[in-house]
């Protein structure tokens, strides 16, 4: 089946630093990838939609200068949390939409803790 | 705007029971609907995808139905097991070119031995 990986699976960083999270579709191509944020016991909140080779589309209320998204190839998208603060601590999940089936396959998530 | 609601928010049952999880959505113009499972601290695992032209999909002990006109979907779990304990999320794809999913808040299921 289709596999999406995320790296790192967890990261702890100091306030003010930047953190990059990678999302890869391992065995299929995806022109569209999505980045979600999830707080404890809450559902997924879509942050942005990323298309290969073009600028990401951010949801209302998401700061594009703080959450930088790059989708440089059909199998890789990155999310960079810039100047991280404790309130950015969360579980970040990416998904990739299969060109063949239109299904979305989700990565295992990245737990970010900002101290 | 598409809103997705899941009922109940939580469910705790003994092993062996047959379960029904409910999902409703406000805009019936959908492309497909997916049911996912999420274990604590993990990503999402796709369980079943129903295209808008379909009425149901089955996989093992899971059966999902879709009534697009009434804006409802149900996930039926037969002979529940402790390993089924997880949060179940339903999500609707409205069919835009980007394929954005609209999620419900999930049903947290606990199956005890």
- The sequence of SSEs of chain A as H and E is EEEEEEEEEEE
Number of distinct beta strands of chain B: 11
Q: How do the SSEs of chain B run, as a string of H and E?
A: EEEEEEEEEEE
Structural class category of chain B: mainly beta
* Backbone shape of chain A: globular
Strand content of chain A: over 45%
Which consecutive residue ranges of chain A, at least 5 long each, have pLDDT under 50? none
Distance between the termini of chain A: 37 Å
Structural class of chain A: mainly beta
How would you characterize the largest beta sheet of chain A?
Answer: 7 strands, mixed
Averaging pLDDT over every residue of chain A, what do you get? Answer: 92
Poorly predicted residue ranges of chain B? none
Largest interface, and how many residues on either side?
A: A-B, 26 and 23 residues
Helix content of chain A: under 10%
What is the overall number of helices of chain A?
Answer: 0
Relative helix content of chain B: under 10%
Classify the beta-strand content of chain B into a percent band.
over 45%
**Subunit arrangement of the protein:** heterodimer
Using only C-alpha atoms, the radius of gyration of chain B works out to: 14 Å
Describe this structure in words.
By secondary structure, chain A is an all-beta fold. In chain A, 0% of the residues lie in helices and 53% in strands. With 113 residues, chain B is mostly beta strands. In chain B, 0% of the residues lie in helices and 57% in strands. Chain B contains no helices and eleven strands. The termini of chain B are far apart. The chains are: A mainly beta (115), B mainly beta (113).
Task: Briefly say what this structure is.
The complex is a heterodimer of chains A (about 120) and B (about 110). Chain A has about 120 residues and is an all-beta fold.
């Amino acid at each position: 089946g289709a596999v999406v990986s995320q790296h790192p699976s967890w990261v702890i960083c100091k306030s003010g630093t930047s953190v990059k999270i990678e999302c890869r579709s391992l065995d299929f191509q995806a022109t569209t990838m999505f980045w979600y944020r999830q707080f404890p016991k809450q559902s997924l909140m879509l942050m942005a939609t990323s298309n290969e080779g073009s600028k990401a589309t951010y949801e209302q209320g998401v700061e594009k200068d703080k959450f930088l998204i790059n989708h440089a190839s059909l199998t890789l998208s990155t999310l960079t949390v810039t100047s991280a603060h404790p309130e950015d601590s969360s579980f970040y999940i990416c998904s990739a939409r299969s060109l063949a089936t239109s299904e979305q396959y989700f990565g295992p998530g990245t737990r970010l803790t900002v101290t | 705007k598409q809103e997705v609601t899941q009922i109940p928010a939580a469910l705790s049952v003994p092993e062996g029971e047959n379960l029904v999880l409910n999902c409703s959505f406000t805009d019936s113009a959908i492309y497909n609907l997916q049911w996912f499972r999420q274990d604590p601290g993990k990503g999402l695992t796709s369980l079943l995808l129903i295209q808008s032209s379909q009425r149901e999909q089955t996989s093992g002990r899971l059966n999902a139905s879709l009534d697009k006109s009434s804006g409802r979907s149900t996930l039926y779990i037969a002979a529940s097991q402790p390993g089924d304990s997880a949060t179940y999320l339903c999500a609707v794809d409205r069919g835009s070119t980007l394929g954005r999913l609209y999620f419900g808040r999930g049903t947290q299921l606990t199956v005890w031995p």
